[in-house]
Amino acid sequence: MIALFGREHETAHLNGLIDAIGERGGTLLVRGAAGIGKSALLAVAAEHARTTGVAVLRAAGVQSETHLPFAALHQLVQPLLGAVDDLPPLQRAALRGAFGLDEAAGPEPFVIALAVLNLLGEAAAHRPLLAVVDDAQWLDRPSAEVLAFVARRLHSEPIVLFMAVRDGYPTIFDDSGLPGLTLAVLASTAAQALLEARAPGLGLGMRWRVLAEAVGNPLALVELPQAAALTPHPGFLPLTARLERAFAARLAEIPEQTRTLLLAAAANDGPDLAEALAAAGIVTGAALDPADLAPAAEAGLVEPHVQAVRFRHPLVRSAIYQKAGPAGRQAIHAALARVFAHDEDRRAWHRAAALGRQDESVAADLEQAAVRARRRGALSVAVTALRRAAEVSEQPAVRAERLLRAAELAFELGHGGQVGELLTLIESPLLGEPQQARLAWLNEVLEEGRNEGPDRVRRLIATAEACRTVGDRALALNVVRAAAVRCWWSDPGWELRQRVVAAGRGLAGGDDDPEMIMIAATAVPIEYGPAILDRLVKLREQPVDGTGARMLGVAATTVGAFDLGSGFLNAAIARLRAEGRLGLLAQALSSGVWCQIFCGDWAGASMQAEEAERLARETHQPRWQSSALAGLALLAGLRGQPARGAALAAEGERVLGGLAISANVALLQHAKGVLALSSGQHEEAFGYLWRIFDRGDPAHHPIWRQWVLSELAESAVTDAQRQAVRHVLTELRAVAARTRSPLLQVGIRHAHALLTDDEAGYHDALEADLAPWPMARGRALLAHGAWLRRRRRILEARVSLRTARDTFDALGFTAWGERARQELRAAGEAGGERSASSIEAFTPQELHIARLAAEGLSNREIAQQLYLSHRTVSTHLYRAFRKLGITSRGQLRDHLR
Fold it and tell me: 657 — alpha (psi -120 to 50), left (phi > 0) or beta?
């Protein structure tokens, strides 16, 4: 076993994770400066894994390979590709397409990621697995995105993933929340021991000089003594630059042909020795053979290998490449382009690297490389290829079009910062009308959080009209939907909302078109509410595709028909799962959370909110992540978990940041109000909730306030507060006269009963059809029972309070159940202790898996739906069985029923 100087603690940590692989898997990011010993530590861990019977997969990022789609991923899983045919058909096709084994058709990136997760899981089922990825800062972006997805899902797998990341390079792993280990410089004693072991004959003066310059960096301690001379250098150079200089100095000692061969290997996007020999031969005009590499091995620049060029360290590669100068680098890239005449992608990139000017033929090659990358699901590579194609384009207008397409692909990826950067490079006067419309659309989605009020809506209507004029109906509808959503966020006035609806009607396929229904529902939910409800009821019985179902679900939530919304959104969610469209899935789940909350399904709401928050975080959608967090916070309040709820609400506000979206701010205030109300803090609750009704507050939302009326009335305890609620009630009665919003009608009756404080009001509230709204029914019963108790009608009060208690207990809303018990005790009856259901001990993910299992889905089918490995599903199901004390799925169905 290799022993590393001064790394005993770090070695024990990595080995400990490997030793525990039978109990749990996981990921560790090993971070540190160049030469600090990351690769050596991973090598020690890999050796330990092999000695303990753990299989090892290895890959390394290479700076010159970042433009090759899935290059690092292919390197990592190449030993497992024989099992690809055992994957589900959609995953098999996606992975084979990603690796260029089959013609691809633009698979969803997350389908590729799930395929890799399952491929690793199948291998680990036979033998535990360690995956080691070195130099992760240089992974091609598609490979990095897949590994980030996989890394978050290994807890239940006998798989450990170690990734080394060099300091100073931003990666997608930086904000992933994955556990990390940072390597510090060696302590003085360890540094001296390492230097003594590698350079025992060093003189005392030189020894202390090396120790001073190396500053505890292991690579420096090994390499600096081998430098030709440690002469003073002008000015200060960072250690990395000094190491590169030390490596570059050795180039002078080797023959010119060997230097050219090393440059070819450094510039190549693969380690193949034959490719480097061929390119070097073109530049030198002589036939080279593997023996020409021997002087470089003797100089300690490369490691001996029969068929590949393996540099001693990435700094060797960069030193050789930089030392060559621009002319030398261009010449070797031109030679490599000739070597790769048969490989269109690699040829295109090397041709581009060889350029010192604009060249339309190279730009066209790069554009085609972008098309192929997109077909393989590597959108990030396609963006890079189009951007480079724009840089070498000869015609300014074509350059602008390529940048626009790159920005559109970056938007598909959810990379807002990259979209903004690309848009600043576009000379918009060079674009034609269709492209101007696309540019306007991108600017709209990029500035989603900016609230410019009516002006932005006017511009969007004008943009939609321009799109329609040039014949792009789909884009025009996108723009109109964006305008309608802005009407939902902030009322721009009746005239503009009417114009949005008119624009939608001119583009949609009739009043029953889900596009039109969604536009009308978000732009004019009050005025068009009855008509929208009629259409939703009608379409509930008709087949609708996944996209249409999602739009109808959103429309239902905007008009308060949350009971109808659940059905449409569930259909959309099932379709989005099957297609692997996790970005839209996160949005549909977030919308569905509120349907489940208002309809009293705390279990469904919890599992949807948890999944929505996780997926929105993974797909970089802060608006939808914030919405899911608000739902989780509100549920925590209902379930008597104030501390957890407060933390979730705070996280929702942090995630939302500076996005000026009043709807999200309203959701968070709603959650905070329920948290305070559930804890008996009426004054605080009123303060949070009133913000939603205050027209001058950023949280004001004219529609969402309709669903919060009951809570506002319950929190009003002072005369001034109750008077304010009466004014609101009068105003919302006028709204209710124009709309048949079911939840608004329920809220009006409840608030009226509380404010009038007479029996007729309570009877009116309880005589409404509350079957779809069990939480509202429980709260009405609780309020009525308390009213009866205060009038000493004890027997009647007990009946209402018992029913309220049982309703809250069944829903799992423990905070409200305790309030009912307090009232019962005040009425002279023991409230009884609540017997918590075993299911309430489930995590949201366990509950989700248990529900799907109870519906008859296999572990593999559940895994595909939830984007988990089937072993993770099996682990969660096992835990669920233990919590319920059962052994079969039949028993599980009985418990859940």
Answer: left
By DSSP bridging, strand 180-182 and strand 159-166 are unpaired
Q: Give first-to-last CA distance, the chain, whole Å.
A: 56
* Contact (CB, 8 A) for 45 and 162: yes
Count CA within 13 A, CB hemisphere, residue 280: 26
Q: What is the pLDDT of residues 721-779, one digit of tens each?
A: 999 999 999 999 999 988 888 889 999 999 999 999 888 988 998 988 888 889 899 99
Cβ proximity of 397 and 363 under 8 Å:
no
Widest CA span in the chain: 107
Per-residue pLDDT, averaged over 43-54, amounts to 96
Q: How far is CA 204 from the centre of its chain?
A: 55
DSSP state, 842?
S
Cross-strand pairs, 272: 308
Q: What is the pLDDT of residue 231?
A: 47
Kindly give, in sequence order, each residue whose CB lies less than 8 Å from that of residue 830, ignoring residues fewer than 6 positions away. 824
Contact in structure between 637 and 815 (CB atoms under 8 Å):
yes
Q: What are the tokens at 693?
A: 């009704």
Q: Which of 706, 640, 625, 710 is nearest to 675 (CA)?
A: 640
Q: Is it the case that residue 47 has pLDDT exceeding 90?
A: yes
Structure tokens at 794: 């004890």
What average pLDDT does range 110-136 have in this prediction?
93
On whether the CB atoms of residues 145 and 618 are closer than 8 A, the answer is no
Instruction: List Cα–Cα distances, 602 to 497, 730, 805, in angstroms.
Output: 35, 31, 16
Per-residue model confidence (pLDDT) at position 837: 66
- The radius of gyration of the chain from alpha carbons, rounded to an integer in Å, stands at 32
- From the CB of residue 577, how many other CB atoms can be counted at a distance below 10 Å? 18
Do 662 and 629 meet the contact criterion of CB atoms below 8 Å apart? Answer: no
CA 123-128-131 angle, 5° bins: 80
Sign of the C-alpha dihedral computed for residues 705, 707, 711 and 713 taken in this order? positive
For the record, the structure tokens of 886 come out as 């059962």
Q: At residue 139, does pLDDT exceed 90?
A: yes
Cα atoms in the 13 Å half-sphere on the side-chain side of 651: 18
Please, are residues 813 and 775 in contact by the beta-carbon 8 Å criterion? yes
Higher pLDDT, 263 or 833: 263
Mean of pLDDT over the chain: 89
pLDDT band at 838; cut points 50, 70, 90: low
How far apart, in whole angstroms, are the C-alpha atoms of residue 372 and residue 795?
Answer: 76
CA distance 499 to 370: 39
d(CA 232, CA 376): 52
- The string of pLDDT tens digits covering residues 800-814 is 999 999 998 888 888
Confidence of residue 620 (pLDDT cuts 50, 70, 90): confident
Tell me which residue has tokens 């090396």.
210
Contacts (Cβ under 8 Å, ≥6 apart) of 542: none
Residue 287, amino acid: A
Match 């205060």 to its residue by tokens. Answer: 790
Helices (H) and strands (E) in the chain, counts: 45, 7
Find, among 638, 597, 634, the residue nearest to 816 by Cα: 638
Q: Is 501 helix (H, G, I), strand (E, B) or coil?
A: helix
Residue 234: pLDDT above 70?
A: no
CB atoms within 10 A of CB 446: 17
How far apart, in whole angstroms, are the C-alpha atoms of residue 111 and residue 142? 12
Residue ranges of E strands in 579-663? none
How far is it, in rounded angstroms, from Cα 88 to Cα 792? 66
On whether the CB atoms of residues 859 and 881 are closer than 8 A, the answer is: no
Please give the C-alpha separations between residue 573 and each of 254, 579, 584, 635, in angstroms, as whole numbers: 63, 10, 9, 21
Residue 870 CA to residue 88 CA, distance in Å, equals: 12
3-state secondary structure of 308: strand
- Name every residue whose Cβ is closer than 8 Å to that of residue 420 and which is 6 or more positions away in sequence: 446
What average pLDDT score do residues 57-80 get? 92
